[in-house]
Design brief:
The structure is a homodimer of 414-residue chains. The first copy, chain A, is of the alpha/beta class and 414 residues long. Chain A has 3 domains: 61 residues, Arc Repressor Mutant, subunit A, CATH 1.10.10; 135 residues, Nucleotidyltransferase, domain 5, CATH 3.30.420.40; 171 residues, ATPase, nucleotide binding domain (Nucleotidyltransferase, domain 5, 2-Layer Sandwich), CATH 3.30.420. Chain A is built from 12 helices and 15 strands. Chain A has a 5-stranded mixed β-sheet with strand order 6-5-4-7-10, sandwiched between helices. In chain A, strands 13-12-11-14-15 form a 5-stranded mixed β-sheet, covered by helices on one side. Chain A has a 3-stranded antiparallel β-sheet with strand order 1-3-2. In chain A, a hairpin with a 2-residue loop joins strand 12 and strand 13. In chain A, helix 8 packs across helix 9. The termini of chain A are far apart. Chains A and B meet through helix 1 and helix 10 of A and helix 1 and helix 10 of B. Chain A binds a DNA duplex (30 and 30 nucleotides) through helix 1 and helix 3.
Amino acid sequence: MTAIARSDDVRRQNRRLVLGALRDHEQLSRTGLHRRTGLSPSTVSAITSDLIMEAILREQRDPDMPATRRGRPQVALGLNPDAAAIIAVVLSLNSLSASLIDYSGGIIVDRQARLETLGMTRRELVAAAQAMIGELVDHSARTGARVLRIAFAVQGITDSVARTMLWSPISPHSDVAFADAIEDAFGIPVTVENDCNMIAVALQARDSERYRDNFIAVLLSHGIGMGLVIKGDLFTGTRSSAGEFGHMNHVPDGALCRCGRHGCVEAYAGSYAIWRAALCHDPDETPASDVPEQEIASLAHRARERDGPERRAFDKAGEAIGFGLGSLFALIDPAPVAFVGHGAQAIDLLEDPIRRAIAKTAGGQHDAALTFLVEPNEAPLIREGCALRALTYVDREIFSGSPAQPSDARQDVA
Amino acid sequence: MTAIARSDDVRRQNRRLVLGALRDHEQLSRTGLHRRTGLSPSTVSAITSDLIMEAILREQRDPDMPATRRGRPQVALGLNPDAAAIIAVVLSLNSLSASLIDYSGGIIVDRQARLETLGMTRRELVAAAQAMIGELVDHSARTGARVLRIAFAVQGITDSVARTMLWSPISPHSDVAFADAIEDAFGIPVTVENDCNMIAVALQARDSERYRDNFIAVLLSHGIGMGLVIKGDLFTGTRSSAGEFGHMNHVPDGALCRCGRHGCVEAYAGSYAIWRAALCHDPDETPASDVPEQEIASLAHRARERDGPERRAFDKAGEAIGFGLGSLFALIDPAPVAFVGHGAQAIDLLEDPIRRAIAKTAGGQHDAALTFLVEPNEAPLIREGCALRALTYVDREIFSGSPAQPSDARQDVA
DNA sequence: CTATTTTTTTCGAGCCTCGAATTAAAGAGG
DNA sequence: CCTCTTTAATTCGAGGCTCGAAAAAAATAG
């Protein structure tokens, strides 16, 4: 709105368009790009020849492909894997993993470690991440790939400006400055993102039919998280990752939540809350720090078999989620909901109470339009989204400006 | 993101920049525009000379102004009032008003009418608006001003795509298609907006120090409404005006709300709810369709004087607002809150319970940063915001494309 | 070996912004 | 009254960018 437009902004924007089309479609000829982007063939030619010169794109001549049609054959263009690399780091409860990923999205190396996140000091947490990243950076140096961006996905609230982890259930420490430390150590720009937001990013890329402009990804796990896409864009708060669906208030002064407050949605719908209620414990009992997945699975099994405290616990959980969604819908309009995470495996127990609760709220007006979708396995989604997010940063910020070094990127091995 | 950029988009964008600067600052010289927008003097010159040629801007030579400084004096530019006109229509309970407004924001004529909105048919509602607009259009025809846009501000939920009033407390009818009917009648583009959103627009323009990038305008009146600005932009839902803060759920299966559901924030904090609670009526009693302002004022008076059901009613109201804001903060981060409307006059009674409730929610973390501001009179804000919104549309959509008619707008009288 | 078809590149026209130089319009001072 | 100084605004050429039309490239069909 308040941004001044110069002539080369046009080129920047159109380069992004081309890179975006190729990120979606893997391979496209110049004609294909012309059709998909709407740019004229001459412009596509100009832009792609620049990008090829800069070794960001490359022609992928397929000698096997027997040209079926008459006429000059199309030559496919694709993102050059060696143009850059990024590192995607996922930090969750007691687990740290990182991947070195090439520019076209292929995994180069993977690292994974178990660690006691709850017992670690602030410094130890950062050091653990830094060590794992260091190994990947070393590896990249050996293969000649230049790591241009590191993206963290962490459980909890992140600050998009200071790029820190503001608060997280995986650690007692607040405001952990991952970005600054890692940036200092490796001289590579770092972003810190919320894990559920990355789930949303991944869903959008995986199935752009279903998840395009407006949808809600709800993570049902030990805690409750959410990633929100509105009008095609990932929604974030004024400053933090926000979208803390799990900590919207469900019952004033209600059950004790892991965050220390009372009555949050999570205090009814998180694994620990279901467990607590199913075992008829005091709702003000301090939440268990971890409940094994099998435990929840067997509670769900019980709940399916017969009426009792287990079924009531899942009913309460569904009700909390439903009222929460209802309030959310009052604010942003109803949208398709994807339930992700192992908690989503009990969706059969949850769906009815969720729908009943939504029907009691403002969102209920459009009930018919509501669709629920289930993706039980969250970890790969987080990894995928995180990697994609980092690559998109590279697309937008690094490869859209023209004054990049022209060649020199061809230093790949072999 | 997916938009292709052409060369003349640059000019379009920069024209908007110039018009926007002049809308904010009333008068600016070309040098002033250069400083404020960052455009080079030559570009400012090119753009402004086009705009003057098209009679969108005009030079405002001030012969009185004794040039205090040495050197060639600056010549002030301003929006040409005769460049266009817009009509701002405000529809609320039992009241319809409309203003014909010139391009620089000055009021040309005003119309106002009392009507029984609750008792009117769908057709009568539209006809009433059409009649009032018709008078203003006639007036504009006599003075030669061309009306380029009509903007409605209505209480209730609006649909930004179909430009209808989806649901409103002022009428039993849903999905009232104001825009289509009015557009057909006058051949002028129409938009339908939510009144609280227009309050937010007006606040942003009035005091851009306080209300710039992130703030929340909450209307405390018979019902509860909200307008939300996030990262400088008015927030709207995926499709409707959304931001239905008043219909977020406060207490599951709680008090009966005007919308027919139970437990909404409004069912505790709306005027009718406070009245109902203060008089110790059943919380499931059908809400009164209107409660006089003096009635509320005297309840507030009572509540200030002594403990009793009145004070408890205001406590409950504040608590509902506080929990609602807390849940909102969980989603978007805390932001300054402006309370608008006659209900805000009891802010002294509400503030404490609001703060106490927020402290119990996720938003409480940043309590210190929370500032409340009070603007008791909502009507002028709605009018102002609505007019500004219409004018901004004209700026963006009509006067940013180059192929406008070059002159012919100079047909002003006298 | 030539004609046809399809893809890609080349080239000139027409935008746009910007910096430098130029012109315009005042006050200051003798 | 005339000239110098200062500030504002315009003009002009350079350098981008996109686009359409025409040309070149690279295959198949006959």
